[in-house]
Design a protein that fits this description.
The complex is a heterodimer of chains A (115) and B (111). Chain A is mostly beta strands and 115 residues long. Chain A contains no helices and 11 strands. In chain A, strand 7 and strand 8 form a beta hairpin. Chain A is globular. In chain B, strands 1, 3, 4, 8, 9 and 10 form a 6-stranded mixed sheet that branches. A 4-stranded antiparallel sheet of chain B has the order 2-7-6-5, with no helix packed on it. Chain B is globular, with a radius of gyration of 13 Å. Classes of the chains: A mainly beta (115), B mainly beta (111).
């Protein structure tokens, strides 16, 4: 069983389109994240949700809208896609304890290519 | 900011050698650090972590060293194997935020 699974693994689309990436974790964790990894492999936090509530939003354009229907799911919807959105998007989860993030468990990534 | 010269984007070693990957972190208030390994086409995987009240922690073939004075973290891999080839990231936990990742180091192991 995959602990953190995200779909689709690959996504190729035209500029201006709207697309979604889905993420599910079966670890029973309270906190989920979206990270963006650019072509230079730099990993940057985008969002964090704890028990369905947004706790971190790192100056991401409002074309990006995360949605958490329950604590096991965190989906990412992107409107009006731009060339610069091309990247690999990673979902992750953790069992936060106190102020610590704790170990993050990552999905396999979703490679988005905007043409 | 990062200490110039400590971070190497790539490291090439021979199989059986010991590898040392360095990382400079940014926030002196960070109290929890993790090393991750990312293989091609996969998500980052946990290797080892360390809290700020420690300066050394050992795992299987890996050791993490923490120097809070200069905000430096290192990962030592003993007897490096071809399967260790990957991108390695250090990450720091700043209270109230998510894990912040440093620049990765690509380790290439030749046999």
């Amino acid at each position: 069983d995959t602990a953190v699974s995200q779909t689709p693994k690959y996504l190729v689309t035209q500029m201006g389109n709207d697309k979604s990436i889905k993420c599910e974790q079966n670890l029973g964790h309270d906190t989920m994240y979206w990270y963006k990894q650019d072509s230079k492999k730099f990993l940057k936090i985008m969002f964090s949700y704890n028990n369905k509530e947004l706790i971190i939003n790192e100056t991401v354009p409002n074309r990006f809208s995360p949605k958490s229907p329950d604590k096991a799911h965190l989906n990412l919807h992107i409107n009006s896609l731009e060339l610069g959105d091309s990247a690999v998007y990673f979902c992750a989860s953790s069992q936060r304890t106190g102020g610590d993030t704790g170990e993050l468990f990552f999905g396999e990534g979703s490679r988005l290519t905007v043409l | 900011g990062e200490s110039v010269g400590l971070h190497l984007p790539t490291l090439s070693v021979q199989e059986g050698d010991n590898s040392i990957i360095n990382c400079a972190y940014s926030n002196s208030a960070s109290d929890y650090f993790i090393w991750y390994k990312q293989e091609s086409g996969k998500g980052p995987q946990f290797i080892i972590d360390i809290r700020s009240n420690m300066d050394k922690r050992q795992g299987q073939r890996v050791t993490v060293l923490l120097n809070k004075t200069v905000k430096h973290l290192s990962l030592q891999i003993a007897a490096t194997q071809p399967g260790d080839s990957a991108v390695y990231f250090c990450a720091e936990n700043q209270a109230g935020t998510a894990l912040i990742f440093g620049k990765g180091t690509t380790l290439s192991v030749s046999s």
